[in-house]
Amino acid sequence: MNFEFSEDVTAMREEVKRFLTKRLPTGAVRHQIETGDAFDRELWPELAGMGWLGVAIPEAYGGAGLGHEALCMIAEEIGRALPFVPFSSSIFLAAQAILEFGSEAQKQKYLPGLADGSLIGTFALAEGAGDPSPDAVRTEFASGQLTGRKLPVFEAAAAHFAVVAARSGSGEIGLFIAGFDAEGIARETLATLDIGRPAATVTFTCVAAEALPQAGNWSAVTRLLDQAAILFAFEAVGGAQAAAAMALDYAKSRYAFGRPIAALQALKHKLADIYVATELARSNAYFGAWALEANAPELPAAAAAARISANEAFFEAAKENIQIHGGMGFTWESDCHLYYRRAKQLSGNLGSARYWRNRLIDRLMTQNQTAAA
Amino acid sequence: MNFEFSEDVTAMREEVKRFLTKRLPTGAVRHQIETGDAFDRELWPELAGMGWLGVAIPEAYGGAGLGHEALCMIAEEIGRALPFVPFSSSIFLAAQAILEFGSEAQKQKYLPGLADGSLIGTFALAEGAGDPSPDAVRTEFASGQLTGRKLPVFEAAAAHFAVVAARSGSGEIGLFIAGFDAEGIARETLATLDIGRPAATVTFTCVAAEALPQAGNWSAVTRLLDQAAILFAFEAVGGAQAAAAMALDYAKSRYAFGRPIAALQALKHKLADIYVATELARSNAYFGAWALEANAPELPAAAAAARISANEAFFEAAKENIQIHGGMGFTWESDCHLYYRRAKQLSGNLGSARYWRNRLIDRLMTQNQTAAA
Amino acid sequence: MDFNDTPEEAAFRAEARAFLNANAVLKSEHSRTSGSRAFNAEDVALSKAWQGKKAEAGFAGFHWPKKYGGREGTQMQAIIFAQEEEKYLVPPGIFNQGVGMALPTIMSCGTQAQIDRYARPALFGEEVWCQLFSEPAAGSDLAGLRTRGARDGDDWVVNGQKVWTSNAHFSQFAMLVARSNPDVPKHQGLTFFILDMATPGVDVRRIKQISGTSNFCEVFLTDVRIPDSQRLGAVGDGWKVAMTMLANERFTVGQAEGPDFDDIFRLAKLVMLDDAPAVNDAAVREKLVNWFCQAQGLKYTRLRMQTALSRGKTPGPEASIAKLVSATKLQEIAAFGVDLLGQAGAVMDSETAPFDAWFQNALLYAPGKRIAGGTDEILRNIIAERVLKMPADMRVDKDMPFNKIPAGPR
Amino acid sequence: MDFNDTPEEAAFRAEARAFLNANAVLKSEHSRTSGSRAFNAEDVALSKAWQGKKAEAGFAGFHWPKKYGGREGTQMQAIIFAQEEEKYLVPPGIFNQGVGMALPTIMSCGTQAQIDRYARPALFGEEVWCQLFSEPAAGSDLAGLRTRGARDGDDWVVNGQKVWTSNAHFSQFAMLVARSNPDVPKHQGLTFFILDMATPGVDVRRIKQISGTSNFCEVFLTDVRIPDSQRLGAVGDGWKVAMTMLANERFTVGQAEGPDFDDIFRLAKLVMLDDAPAVNDAAVREKLVNWFCQAQGLKYTRLRMQTALSRGKTPGPEASIAKLVSATKLQEIAAFGVDLLGQAGAVMDSETAPFDAWFQNALLYAPGKRIAGGTDEILRNIIAERVLKMPADMRVDKDMPFNKIPAGPR
Fold this sequence. Notes:
The complex is a heterotetramer, with 2 copies of chain A (about 375 residues) and 2 copies of chain C (about 400 residues). By secondary structure, chain A is of the alpha+beta class. In chain A, about 50% of the residues lie in helices and about 15% in strands. Chain A has 11 helices and 10 strands. In chain A, strands 1-4-5-8 form a 4-stranded mixed sheet, covered by helices on one side. In chain A, strands 2-3-7-6 form a 4-stranded antiparallel sheet, with no helix packed on it. In chain A, strands 9-10 form a two-stranded antiparallel ribbon. Chain C has about 400 residues and is α+β, with helices and mostly antiparallel strands. Chain C folds into 3 domains: about 90 residues, Butyryl-Coa Dehydrogenase, subunit A, domain 1, CATH 1.10.540; about 120 residues, Butyryl-CoA Dehydrogenase, subunit A, domain 2, CATH 2.40.110; about 120 residues, Butyryl-CoA Dehydrogenase, subunit A, domain 3 (Up-down Bundle), CATH 1.20.140. Helix content of chain C is about 40%, strand content about 15%. In chain C, the strands form 4 sheets. In chain C, strands 3-6-7-10 form a 4-stranded mixed sheet. In chain C, strands 4-5-9-8 form a 4-stranded antiparallel sheet, with no helix packed on it. At the B-D interface, β9, β10, α9, α10 and α11 of B face β11, α9, α10 and α11 of D.
């Protein structure tokens, strides 16, 4: 039985954790967000410099080639520290899409920049409210040009380009790369619940774009969503654990009636339940990491279970972290709300829980088996 | 504002409560069930003698004519005390059906016996698993005879006749009275989760039956279900309150670690939540009582809300009553399980929570108003 | 059983309606309540004027003695007037702390001079009051407050920090509790004061909440001198006076405002899931019905309470139930409203987010509703102890001198 | 990261499979586990024989020293064997109390004579053990037990009542804790004994549970004489010995048996709701997915624990998580299985109720799973205190002489 991350990966994760903990003391992320900039422009190259952006990008394309298990561990630390950088959009989505569906030339063109941080990508699928669906993609790709309106596109203001889902002449949905400096692009900033993950409406009017040749239909999109779901699940697990740890620390240091409030059974049982939910989510995420790395047929079911349980644990932990902090937790000056906002952002960014539940059950119906391994 | 039962009705309810509390000390119901008989043949005429069976039956038909609010209060006490008698089948359903849809002759024939307890009726709608639906009624009424199989028919062994839902020649569903001493009837006892409310499969083979003339189609059945749902909701409220009271008494008298376990926050908060759920259910049931008595257009929505919230509160109270009793609550010798069984019986007897949720939302969709008063 | 007013109630309701019709405008059908709104100077001026108008017409201070401008009326009149007023567009109510809490407390614990000075200006909307109770280290454990009040000649000198004070930035007076003796058990060493907010050393700062708005203040007190004549009740009786005051609060904490069943139902009819309105989805229905049952249950619980009042009985713990259930319901409804929008749930632009991002905004203020005015946990304790008569939590600090109570790392 | 055995583990697994293939029959695909089954004399005889066969072949007492017939093996071997054995139809395991708990305790706290007398008969399935700990007034508060053990010459005379004893009616020996000194604090006055169940004054009665079956016994002890040589550990050390024993229990309390996700999923595909399989209903899906995520989460948590063991690390609190989550999940799944059947949910005839009324039966034994082996509430406390290092609950009785501790009305 070897159902655990390797020692190398674990060591790297500890390094990331130490770095981010030191680099981002309480309040640092919030102050960075308050600058109004699109992301933390100082931190980003530092992360790139440590080689963490390209950890899952093969060495041939400027990455470290350590595989997706390593990226999962970094995702968890991103979820814990909430750095104000477009890590998930650029790496979990844009880089992943190119890695999976790009031509050799595209990989050589984009991946080294994504790995060294000089290039930031994002993913443009949604066109308003609703869940991912080929029918909801009205943006069109014709004669080498994209036309349509994507909303929300996360971290669009930070990005240099987007991987865009669009309908091609054949009627099939494909993925296309469009640079944000191209003619015909308009980015309009949106107010977002998660202030740490800004978004925009991006309007494409006859924008020159190149197709990812291996992404020939909707199944490419769902495959990308499955892969990203696992990385985001690790982000949520990290967030859940950080929010719970924050609540626990506070409960132990806050005294009422002459004892730490951590001695109250109501709090003990609440935090025990959150701990249990987070551990189960973590285990589901681990299975997701295995399925992602092994490119196993269980990937879709593993991704759905990981995402659903991680997002639920995270929202519960973030919500009750505020509650346990009492009035303090309800102020702007506390970091509690950053987790609360992120938890809600993660619960919709790749489609709602309903969408993933349906995908999971449909998958279980066809595979007629409930789990692998 | 006069949203409370009248003093007369409240006084009567106190009388019922006093009587049943004294008449049925702890264990009495269980011992009665263990006799293996179909119901408590001693208690039944006593209830009749007090005039409680006929409380909502007009004086012209041998009842007390006190209306449905009075019956609601008795239903609550039935739910609290769990007497082993076919009260709900005979009064909430059979008598109610005849009162609502019977001819004058039928009322004169059946209601006095139902009121004085000499006649026991029941209701036969279900034909196996599933929710109430005209399509699920395959029993047929033709040439004055019923043919089909009903399952489960609660308290069939105690009853003299059933009000049976069946499809007539026109294809419409109607309600029909069939005597259990008629030729062609077969009653086969079923094992039931709720041992205090036995059931049978009743097979009708060309059984002579008489139609309730005012019950001409499926809407008669749903009307009867709405009315009964409110009475059963009061039963559930009474059950919830009794189970919670049992848990509370036990928690106050059971000591661990030198204090009553009622001092533990886990128990305090659990019982507070159950109290809140029960109070909300009670308020919804009160609105149901008003709608029932006033024959208000809000009846269907009121019935659904009353039933759903009462059944949820009851199951929660009954389940956690066992939990709070610990090992003791898990033994046959404790009465805890009688409430647990009853709660589950009530949650399906007139159709599942899903069925009532759908009826409620469909109703709200059409009425485009969410509440009256 | 019916929902009708008694003849007296009906007459009063007609009177109230006549006054409101003459002086205010009815709300439109779908007006949106929000649980998070900060008041500006204009709001305050309008509120003061409206309070004055109501007081003149006899629609304020329903419980107050007539000699101080009140009505000597019934609880039901107060309820009926509130029911009717709710239907109109009126300025925000900022007089509850003064008229509903401070002055009744002064009337029962204060001197005649204090009553004469403060009653009418409060009732007629000239002076706004706030409440300086909570502290950063004393929230649920109110009696653990640390603001120090030391006697100095005819004055008291107060130092400390108060927090979660609504309306402090435009209040003229405050009810203040401070610790006058730290050497005795915590409930015994408190004293209650009337504080003029214009006193030097009173520094009011607004607190920015999660949502970005500021409904509360923190108040720093540095060598604030309060004349002993402004003391309310005896030295050391502060807890008793505070409890008198909080008993009046019970009637005023009610349901959390914000989107409720009707609103999420409307959203569910609007939003499409797989080409059908979300309201057709069984999982959506399950949640909707749950909230409907809660909302209706709260409504009819309130009507049962009003019936008890109408019959001259003392109401039960309905206010605790309403706050506990409605705050959680609000947070759930807000979260679900966001979830229903799928990939665009996190967008708050009013162009994209239905109803001007009402659900997203509610999600950001809902956590406060589960905390302010008694946390969920405190409310469950109250229900368990006061209604179900379960034993109080064990307290290590009950009989300990205040300055010996463990207070953790600072 | 993978799910593969190490070479050593793989070799052992092959060995175990070979033994099982030669001696037992594989289960069919849809065999139903039940959390409530009472054992009859035939079950006991078959169990004893099977235990003997395993012990002979070296597949019992994995942790035991070789000199007592054990394997001196690893925790992983025990797990692998259990994983493989689970796939076969084998008699019920009734030796856990003896082989897994009693004897390891005797080996660490007992005399050599005690070890020599009891080890082999337990390992080879000749003698069954049970555990006489819980009492009617001492469940979660085990140290509050009242069974009195008084020294009388070379014997101890024991009086009291024990309860919730599995297997007592066919056990030869019991681990017994009694109060030898009521004048000292509760944890200090206990002494541990080995009781021969055939001793006069031992009266075993089976307890009828909600479900009608009897998995547990109550044991009345009336002037039961136990020779001092049967004492385990020092006089007054009973709590320490009991804790040693319960530390071994941690590995044995696992998931609640009964219908799980796969089963409710199968039911949901079978049952029709409005002319479509229930599994198509969004509300049903929401519940199914919740249980799937829990079941999978527990599975992979277990595999993470096994990986830790395989790497020679001490496993964490996974057993507490598994019991807490699975007992509640079981009750929910059972209740939902009943609900899915609508009007016929309450029918338990196997002809009508799918899978021989498996869900209805599970609903009746599920409450016990949330109580036995640590209630939900105790498990949450354990997780909070041992994993999250939160403070212990306050205890009034900790340092009080036992006979002064408030015990409530009797």
